[in-house]
């Protein structure tokens, strides 16, 4: 059944990926109409998330952000499909890194963890490896359908990026450090961990929730550099990325310092243009399960 689904879907996805940009974004407009006005995909989840973290905003403003988010979401997920046939020249034009020289300097000395959030277009972050000499890795969630998983790995692995699962990350990083292999690891770090696996809780957009702190654990244990990747949507189909150093020496940071700074930078990004964040996931679903040691109110 997995193979049948893949065989039926792949030609359609490939056709989308080769559409000229004008037709490509017209198709995205059509998808938005279906998703937002016909299906109503997760509209309630998005609205509840926005009302939770922006209690000061009016219903009119919440509705505006919600609608703009869905337009952006459709663009972003179709842009992920576009990656199947995206050239190096095109990605460099549409995803511009303002200060890549920062990473180029740091990689001369040590490996770098590059956390980012589900903001703007995180799928095109893999193009970073077009500008660096170090081995590049991207941490990803494995797709249930093994054929789609291979497809995703193939097009995300373009431009010298190797995909590793969350379960492979620690082993891979420690092996490379042991073998003195300088590497760069990109990871989307604002997901909601399962409560049973949550070791750290903190306020995110004003709400106390479990926070992934694996980036900090690795950085402090192995003395890695940590650089936040801030991505902004300049206009439709165009993005600008900026590297913001969190630390150049993980072992010299205080407990929770790296994680708190990541949260702070992510919040700043969201508040600038909230419609470009991924509101369709239940990021704050564990807010009523805060352990006693992390309760502040």
Oligomer: single chain
Q: Number of DSSP helices?
A: 10
Shape descriptor: globular
Helix percentage range: 40-55%
Beta-strand percent range: 15-25%
* Series of secondary-structure elements, N-terminal to C-terminal: HHHHHEHEEHEHEEEHEEH
Secondary-structure-based class equals alpha/beta
Mean pLDDT over all positions: 93
The largest β sheet comes out as: 7 strands, mixed
User: Alpha-carbon distance between the termini?
Assistant: 50 Å
How are the strands of the biggest sheet laid out side by side?
Answer: 1-9-8-2-5-3-4
How many beta-strand elements? Answer: 9
Q: List unreliable stretches of 5+ residues.
A: none
Q: What Rg do the Cα atoms give?
A: 19 Å
Give the topology, please.
Elements: H1 2-17, H2 21-39, H3 43-53, H4 59-82, H5 88-94, E1 95-97, H6 100-106, E2 112-116, E3 135-140, H7 146-156, E4 161-165, H8 166-178, E5 183-188, E6 201-204, E7 207-210, H9 214-222, E8 225-235, E9 238-247, H10 257-272
Parallel strand pairs: 1-9, 2-5, 2-8, 3-4, 3-5
Antiparallel strand pairs: 6-7, 8-9
Helix pairs in contact: 1-4, 2-4, 3-4
Describe the structure.
The protein has 297 residues and is α/β, with parallel strands linked by helices. The chain has helices at 2-17, 21-39, 43-53, 59-82, 88-94, 100-106, 146-156, 166-178, 214-222, 257-272; strands at 95-97, 112-116, 135-140, 161-165, 183-188, 201-204, 207-210, 225-235, 238-247. A 7-stranded mixed beta sheet has the order 1-9-8-2-5-3-4. Strands 6-7 form a two-stranded antiparallel ribbon. Helix 1 packs across helix 4 (59-82). It is globular and about 50 Å long. The model has no long low-confidence stretch (mean pLDDT 93).
């Amino acid at each position: 059944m997995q193979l049948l689904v893949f065989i039926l879907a792949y030609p359609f996805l490939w056709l989308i990926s080769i559409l000229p940009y004008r037709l490509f974004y017209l198709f995205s407009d059509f998808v938005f109409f279906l998703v937002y006005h016909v299906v109503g995909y997760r509209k309630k989840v998005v609205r509840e998330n926005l009302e939770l973290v922006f209690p000061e905003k009016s219903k009119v403003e919440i509705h505006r952000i919600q609608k703009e988010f869905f337009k952006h979401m459709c663009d972003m997920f179709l842009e992920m499909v576009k990656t199947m046939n995206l050239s190096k020249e095109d990605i460099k034009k549409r995803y511009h890194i303002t200060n890549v020289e920062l990473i180029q300097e740091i990689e001369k000395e040590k490996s770098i963890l590059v956390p980012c959030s589900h903001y703007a277009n995180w799928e095109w972050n893999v193009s970073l490896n077009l500008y660096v000499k170090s081995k590049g890795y991207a941490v990803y969630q494995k797709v249930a359908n093994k054929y789609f998983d291979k497809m995703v790995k193939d097009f995300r692995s373009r431009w010298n990026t190797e995909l590793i699962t969350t379960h492979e990350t620690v082993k891979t990083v420690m092996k490379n450090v042991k073998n003195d292999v300088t590497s760069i690891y990109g990871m989307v770090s604002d997901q909601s961990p399962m409560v049973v696996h949550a070791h750290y809780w903190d306020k995110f957009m004003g709400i106390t929730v479990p926070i992934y702190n694996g980036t900090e654990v690795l950085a402090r244990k192995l003395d890695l550099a940590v650089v936040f990747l801030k991505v902004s949507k300049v206009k439709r189909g165009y993005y600008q990325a900026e590297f913001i150093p969190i630390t150049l020496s993980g072992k010299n940071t205080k407990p929770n310092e790296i994680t708190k700074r990541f949260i702070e930078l992510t919040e700043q990004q969201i508040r600038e243009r909230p419609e470009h964040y991924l509101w369709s996931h239940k990021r704050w679903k564990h807010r009523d399960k805060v352990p006693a040691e992390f309760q502040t109110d």
